[in-house]
Amino acid sequence: MTTITIGQRKGGNGKSTSALNLAHAFAQKGKRVLLIDLDDQKNSTSAIETVESVTHTVEDLLLNPEVNLSDVAVRTTWEGVSLIAASGSLSGAIRELDGEVGSHLVLKEKLASETFDLCLIDTSPSLNILVVNALCASRWLFVPLSSKYFSLQGLGQTLEAFAKVKGRLNAELEILALAFVIHDGRSALAREVVEKARTEYPELVCATTIGQNIRIEEAQVLRRSILGHLPEDRGSAQYRELADELRVRLGG
Prior knowledge:
Layout (H helix, E strand, L loop, with lengths): L1 E5 L8 H14 L4 E5 L5 H4 L11 H6 L5 H4 L1 E2 L5 E4 L5 H9 L7 H5 L7 E5 L6 H9 L2 E7 L2 H20 L5 E9 L5 H13 L13 H8 L4 H4 L4 H16 L3
Helix pairs in contact: 1-12
């Protein structure tokens, strides 16, 4: 199973939106996708409808040794996509894991199953033990960006955290890509931000950008991806293109 953490140290950069729409885009290409919501804001959990009722959350997976992946992963109405839901009490899980030796490896151990082809992990902006768990369980880090100046500050903090985890805890961790998933193409400043990132990280920044699009937000309110809500919308086409670009980076 290929595991990708979707991470950004600054909020408002489209982590959950990317996680949801990329999960569906990969599933539409025939992949069995697991989406894990590790953010106590529960944005991914609230934006996707499940076929089965959620009886266990990611908190149970992390804290209960008897709970396995099959106990918490539930099918969603998006064909090919399963979800491990977030819990509103993840702060308690953080405190408990912080006091446990080796707790940064709990998620990696629980994801040892090969049930799915691809696992996407939606994380919070803070660098807590849950985010460290995600990075230790992952082979790849995907960083979503908005084309606003402060997004690049968050990128710097994200890359610093990546370097620490790679150097100390997970030597196999690599950056899959950086992608502008909230981009106002009409703004000269936004275009400058994109060009600055492409100049500084030429091999990492994706060619595909996702334009600002109210329909993407409308889809999430309806608990759909933009691909399921409006398949012909430009947002759907852009997320399909981004998924294709990432698939090439993953080696097909």
